[in-house]
Amino acid sequence: MRLIDYFDRGVDRFPERDCLHDGTRGWTYREISGWTHRIANGLLALGLQRGQVASVYSPNHANAYAALLGIVRAGLSWAPVNARNGLDENIYILNNVDCVCLFYHSSFEHYLPRLRAECPKIEHYICVDKEGADTPFLMDWLMQQKERAPDLPDDPDEVCFVASSGGTTGRPKGVLISNRVIETMNANFLACMPLDKPPVHLMVAPMTHAAGVCSFPMLPYGGTNIFMPAADPLAIMENIQRFKVTHIYMPPTLIYMMLAHPRVRDFDYSSLRNLVYASAPMSADKLVEAVEVFGPVLTQTYGQAEACMICTFFSPAEHVEAMASNKRHRLTSCGRTTPFMRLEIMDDDGNLLPRGERGEVVVRGGLVMKGYYKNPEATAEASKFGWHHTGDIGIIDEDGFVYIVDRKKDMIISGGFNIYPSEIEQVIWSHPAVQDCAVIGVPDEKWGEAVKAVIELKPGKSASEDDILALCREKLGGMKTPKTAEFIDALPRSPVGKVLKKDLRARYWEGRARAI
After folding, report:
1. Rg, Å, the chain Cα set
2. Residue 514: what pLDDT?
3. Would you state the torsion angle of the CA atoms of residues 31, 37, 39, 41, taken in this order, to the nearest 10 degrees?
């Protein structure tokens, strides 16, 4: 099936149910269906060809979501650009994927001169929320188009969107996501989180990333997507109660902010079925607190742009079982491999390792990307030995639970020993004053690299360096205890909430030939 087919199934089954909602009003599946057909016809009328790339540059917005559905209905590839990125990065992404048409939000109107000057392949601009200075308003433009778009052939290997890799080790790469990838992702989602009634999905994280992908398997079941333009913790809690939200995706940092909010226990969260956390490791102690506050709904998935969203699944019931048994260590797991995927641990020579041994996480199956856009070298590198290489270091225990130990690039080599920051971060997170932390390697004449903790405290809380180091020494012993701890107001984060360790490391390694 094509990506648009899942939406059309929702139109068939739930035509009068709200598909999109902006917090003040909703639009039904029937209404949005009409928009998507007209948008598709408008794109075809512009002369755009099947397989070309169109992008949406907008904060979370109902019209922006309708635009992406219209893009894929036309047989074009949707290339999301994150509204929280810097303009320079988004210009690079738009050029890298050869974008020819851009739907944009008026809050970025002032970027148009640079976009026109530096993105010469973009021939058409359409403003999603009002008439632009010299561009049409989406709603006016689509009403000029024919009511019914052609039904295009189903090609499982056709690219329906071009995702953007995280760019944590260099420039973002265009990740080719085919219809087959979406079909496998939806199958895994629904096998792990079956839907017995229409869900209500609160779109808090950017629709350009996992929160948007989460919405696709809900469309055939009449899912209502409620858009929040900003991730305000209090507004999230209010909206969960107000709209009886059943599903929500958030990075751990946002959950931490909610738990630290003085009103976190003032709301009714009983409607929640799955509060999905992903993108980064989560503190086991804060996970226990989150289950206590939000109920037995915490759900973890593991994936990446190149292996879409749900390679592993850690269910709410498994969370509760881990807390109730002597297997609390499982809270640092990301669950077990999903039904329509294969995941193993591999050494540097391409050998699959037995349970309990540490190595790189590799995956294969229908979730894996078609490749990187116009980058065969990077595609070949990521696909060595017939598996997709995630760049994550992990182990699988005897029960099949997967533990992501660290990113390959984040490993610290101190005094000849390999030290994995995530183990240390789990201990520091357990301190009651700590909101978030990152452990990095900094240059040291004796050890090569010394372990350093950089810490963000909860508002109004305090802790000393000695407090943190003593806690680590007690839990981890001397070798893994950081040599130093530093407190900062806020850790640098990517637009999707990941802590940017490369930015933290940069100032300590400045002026050195090697950052290791």
Report:
1. 23
2. 46
3. -150
Q: Inter-axis angle of helices 3-13 and 62-73, to 10 degrees? A: 110
**What type of residue sits at position 34?**
G
The pLDDT tens digits for 179-208 are 999 999 999 999 999 999 999 999 998 899
Residue 332, beta-bridge partner list: none
β-pair partners for 274 = 247
Query: Which residues on adjacent β-strands are paired with residue 434?
Result: 457
Mean pLDDT to the nearest integer, 496-513: 79
Q: Which helix (H) or strand (E) holds 94?
A: helix 87-96
Amino acid at 282: M
Q: How far apart are CA 427 and CA 286, in angstroms?
A: 11
Of the candidates 329, 312, 322, 320, which has an alpha carbon nearest to the alpha carbon of residue 402?
A: 312
Q: What is the pLDDT of residues 208-255, one digit of tens each?
A: 988 899 999 999 999 999 999 888 999 999 999 999 999 999 988 889
Q: Are 239 and 23 in contact (CB under 8 A)?
A: yes
The distance between the two most distant Cα atoms of the chain, rounded to a whole number of Å, is 72
In DSSP terms, 314 is beta-bridged to 300
Question: Considering only CA atoms, which of 283, 237, 275, 290 is closest in space to residue 435?
Answer: 283
275-287 pLDDT tens trace? 999 877 788 889 9
C-beta of residue 476 within 8 angstroms of C-beta of residue 483? no
What's the pLDDT score for residue 515? 52
Rounded to 5 degrees, φ, ψ at 364 are -155, 160
Look up residue 468 and give its two tokens. Answer: 């943190």
Closest CA to 306 of 155, 418, 178, 480: 178
In 3D space, the residue among 266, 315, 265 whose CA is nearest the CA of residue 292 turns out to be 265
| Domains in the chain: ranges and CATH | 11-178 (3.40.50.12780), 231-403 (3.40.50.12780), 411-509 (3.30.300.30)
Residues 334/404, Cβ–Cβ less than 8 Å: yes
Say how many C-beta atoms besides its own lie within 10 A of residue 47's C-beta: 10
Residue 169 has pLDDT above 50, yes or no: no
- Collapsing DSSP to helix, strand or coil, 460 comes out as coil
- Give φ, ψ of 362 to 5 degrees: -125, 150
pLDDT of 422 reads 84
Structure tokens at 342: 């294969």
